Structures are given as C-alpha cells and as structure tokens.
C-alpha cells in the first residue's frame, strides 16, 4: 500500500508511471467490479480532461472516410459506452490492408504450439492454454500450419509506415478521446496468426479481462476475414460497466485470472457477442469487460492489435526504441510527448 500511495503521488505530480501498482489495481478492480479503476481515473487524469479534440498536428487517416462525420463518430462512441465494443466494417484502406497482410505473411515468426487438455479437464475451464512447444519459424504455410500461433516481431511492425500511421490515426484518436475523456496514451502493437492447428477439444477458450491501465480501448485490425468457425473476438456486452449480472463474474477474478466458458454462458447467455467481420474491419473494445479470443475450428486469422489507453499510471510497459520514424508519427510524438511516452527514437 505504501508503494501504491507513493506511486499515486509521483504520477499526480510528475506523470511518472507506477508499474509496481498494477497487481493491487487488478485486485481492487475485481473486488469493486471496476469502480476502483473509475475512481482512480477521475482523480489521476483530472488535469488532462479534454472536452474538445485537438490533434496537435496535421493528421491523415489510413481508414476510409465512410462514417467520418460528427454523427458517425458519436454513434461509435455511444456503442462503446453502452456495449463496450464497436465494429467498423471494412474501413482499412486497400493499400494498407495489402501491405500489412504481406508483412504478416513473410517475416520470421515466434511460434507457439498448443497441447491437448489433460483427460480430466473440461474445455473452457483451463486457467491457461496448455503449451506443447515454442520456437521460431521463417515461414507460414496457411494450407497446413504446424503451429498454433505465429507472432510477428514488434520491432518489425514499428518500422512499417502503415503501423506507424495507425498509431497516430486522427479518426481512432478522436474516437478514443471522446470515449475516454482524455487524449489516449498509445501502447504496444502486436500482430499474429491464430491458426487451425489446435488440438481437438481445446475450444472453447476461457474468458478473461485485461489489465495494465485504468481505462482504455483495444484496437483490433482484422487483416483476414473472420467467421464463427475461424478465430474471432468474443465479448460480453455491457460487462465493462459495474452491474449485478456480470459483477458476480468479475469478483471471481480476485483469486484466478480466467472465467470458464460454462459459468459465463450460464450467467449471461444473452450478452455474449461473437464479433465476425471481413478483412480490413476494425474492432474497438473496452477490454476491462469480459472477453476472449476464440480458437479455430477451421481457418486462420491474421490480427493487428494496439492500445489507446486513458492513463499511464499502472502501465507495465517499457519504452520501445524506433530506428526509423515517419514524418507524421514524428510530429505526433513531438506534439504529444505524454501520449507517446512508450515510443522513443533509438539512440
């Protein structure tokens, strides 16, 4: 508690993150059904409240202009506030989609291969997915993948001009600012393939909530089409807000990180949303809510994720060095140093 209190003071006075506070923030979130996060957020970010969106540089979006109106933005923000999730169908521009797909199909990957469940364990109840092996691969054969997950190097992603453009995309930043009430802090992009190389019986996957910040949005860019049978995002509607139904599930996270598929389905079957969409679609989600990435029955998915966070207080990330910074991202980092504090120019 002493370290937590000192971390609050340093963040309030100097804006310095307190990663040592993260475990306590997680516990308080589970005990209070998220109310503690909202309380801390109101206190620690009150100096940064921004009623009017101001970018600070001339930004160009890599998303199509469809829906980029005041009314369209408000509709997305309203969906996020009510449901905790919103899907923007096929919004990534074609050249960006093709470039990112090529990037995610032709690099050296870190791989993970899942193992089968023990005979005495039911699917959807495991606290972690069992891992048979990890390693590296120079290629991926989508007709016969031999690993469950192929992760692209983050250092490679951050050198890509389209990834850099997404990290300072004015449309996404405006939606996040309207939703969070503050200009967001941009964090760690990751890109990976979820494949159909999954042992029989491992699906369904357990549910969980994310941590690492007080309030945030997770941005997911679908670089392949997703279907109910392929890997896809599943969200419990409204679970980002304290409520009696899902609050019973959130409190169980005090003693364990995951929630079984069975207990979520029994308590709120009418709130479970399977979010499938075509390639180029963008999913925005408040992943303080209960969610999961469902495993594949058949088919593969390439996904790019990054965070737009409302606070850096308990963030556990370290600054990521960039060797080549595009003009627009450089302007963003200069105009908003607090928001881009986890990106820095390599020395």
What would your notes on this structure say?
With 347 residues, this protein is α+β, with helices and mostly antiparallel strands. It has a single domain (2-345), classed as q2cbj1_9rhob like domain (Jelly Rolls, Sandwich), CATH 2.60.120.620. It has eleven helices and 15 strands. It has helices at residues 2-14, 22-32, 35-44, 70-83, 94-103, 154-157, 161-167, 170-180, 244-250, 261-267, 327-335, and strands at residues 85-88, 109-114, 131-137, 149-151, 185-194, 207-208, 216-222, 232-236, 258-259, 272-275, 282-285, 291-294, 301-309, 320-322, 343-345. Strands 1-11-7-13-5-4-2-3 form an eight-stranded antiparallel beta sheet. A three-stranded antiparallel beta sheet has the order 10-8-12, with no helix packed on it. A two-stranded antiparallel ribbon has the order 6-9. Helix 11 (327-335) links the parallel strand 14 and strand 15. Helix 4 packs across helix 8 (170-180). The longest helix is centred in the N-terminal third of the chain and has 14 residues, at 70-83. The mean pLDDT is 90.
Q: How helix-rich are the residues, as a percent range? A: 25-40%
Number of domains: 1
Number of strands: 15
Low-confidence stretches: none
Q: Give the helix tally.
A: 11
Distance between the termini: 36 Å
Descriptive tags:
alpha+beta, 3-stranded antiparallel sheet, Jelly Rolls, globular, 8-stranded antiparallel sheet, 15 strands, 347 residues
């Amino acid at each position: 508690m002493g370290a937590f209190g000192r971390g609050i003071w340093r963040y309030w006075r100097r804006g310095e993150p307190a990663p040592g506070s993260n475990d306590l923030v997680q516990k308080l979130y589970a005990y209070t059904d998220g109310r503690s996060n909202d309380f801390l957020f109101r206190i620690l970010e009150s100096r940064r409240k921004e009623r009017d969106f101001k970018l600070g540089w001339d930004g160009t979006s890599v998303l199509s202009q469809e829906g980029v109106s005041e009314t369209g933005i408000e509709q997305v923000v309203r969906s996020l506030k009510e449901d905790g999730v919103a899907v923007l169908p096929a919004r990534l521009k074609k050249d960006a989609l093709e470039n990112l797909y090529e990037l995610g199909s032709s690099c050296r990957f870190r791989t993970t291969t899942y193992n089968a469940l023990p005979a005495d364990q039911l699917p959807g109840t495991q606290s972690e997915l069992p891992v048979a092996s990890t390693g590296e691969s120079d290629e991926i054969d989508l007709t016969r993948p031999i690993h469950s997950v192929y992760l692209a190097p983050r250092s490679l992603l951050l050198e890509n001009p389209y990834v850099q453009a997404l990290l300072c995309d004015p449309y996404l930043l405006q939606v996040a600012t309207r939703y969070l009430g503050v200009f967001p802090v941009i964090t760690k992009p990751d890109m990976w393939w979820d494949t159909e190389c999954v042992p029989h019986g491992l699906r369904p996957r357990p549910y969980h909530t994310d941590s690492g910040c007080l309030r945030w949005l997770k941005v997911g860019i679908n670089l392949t089409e997703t279907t109910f049978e392929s890997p896809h995002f599943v969200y419990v509607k409204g679970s980002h807000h304290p409520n009696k139904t899902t609050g019973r599930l959130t409190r169980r996270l005090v003693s364990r990180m995951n929630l079984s598929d069975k207990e979520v389905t029994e308590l709120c079957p009418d709130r479970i949303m399977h979010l499938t969409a075509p390639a180029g679609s963008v999913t925005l989600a408040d992943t303080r809510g209960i969610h999961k990435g469902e495993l594949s029955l058949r088919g593969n998915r390439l996904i790019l994720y990054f965070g737009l966070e409302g606070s850096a207080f308990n963030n556990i990330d370290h600054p990521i060095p960039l060797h080549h910074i595009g003009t627009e991202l450089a302007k963003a980092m200069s105009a908003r140093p607090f928001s881009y504090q986890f990106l820095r120019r390599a020395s």
